[in-house]
Design a protein that fits this description.
Length: 214
């Protein structure tokens, strides 16, 4: 019996993937390195250390990751203030989950500074959730299962009582490795890339409580 829904954040609750990509691209540009959005796609969902570090490795660039990430977040927070919206249907689905008695969590490989900014901007702030797990809270980020297992532990539930909502292959792999039901939505990747999930839907607006708890 599914008792909790664990939402990924970027690409699930809000369309922040293009924003972090733009911020990281600008950071690399400041360092004289030309990158493009396709460079980042293999690292979507893995957290900013790997998201930035993986692209640096691809281009043969040595970075101080902490410094590069700090600058990326400076740019990102400016872009977020200019505009970041929830995906259509987010607030309705969260409300329906609550009405159904489900426990709700966010588990994202992103750092706390980014998660707090995003959740505040889409009017689903940190305290809206029964638990929030960040990439800083675990040793290994997605596709390792740690982040979802940490969420289940905080909720005092077993993995088979949790359903994860994901948008990226790395996230789907992490959810399945954690022993959880996984519903994938096609906001970021084609559904064919998410076939390891238990169920796929084109968008969050197409997702129902029944889809997650069946």
């Amino acid at each position: 019996m599914i008792r909790a829904i664990i939402f990924d954040m970027d690409g699930v609750l809000t369309d922040s993937e293009p924003v972090i990509c733009a911020a990281a691209t600008a950071m690399f540009r400041e360092r004289g390195v030309a990158v493009n959005k396709e460079d980042f796609r293999p690292f979507v969902g893995t957290g900013e250390n790997r998201y930035i570090g993986g692209v640096a490795e691809k281009h043969g660039v040595t970075l101080d990751i902490a410094q590069a990430k700090r600058r990326t977040y400076e740019i990102y927070l400016e872009l977020v203030e200019q505009g970041l919206d929830p995906f259509p249907g987010v607030h309705q689905l969260v409300s329906e989950c609550r009405q159904s008695g489900l426990i709700l969590a966010v588990a994202s490989s992103a750092d706390r500074i980014k998660i707090e900014a995003n959740l505040r901007k889409i009017a689903l702030p940190w305290l809206t959730w029964n638990a929030v797990v960040t990439g800083e809270d675990v040793r290994n980020t997605k596709p390792a299962p740690d982040i979802f297992l940490k969420a289940a532990s905080l909720l005092r539930l077993t993995p088979d009582e949790c359903c994860v909502v994901e948008d990226a292959p790395n996230g789907v792999a992490a959810a399945k490795a954690a022993g959880m039901r996984c519903v994938a939505i096609g906001h970021t990747f084609p559904l064919a890339h998410l076939s390891a999930a238990d169920l796929c839907r084109p968008a969050l607006v197409d997702l129902s409580v029944r889809d997650m708890t069946a």
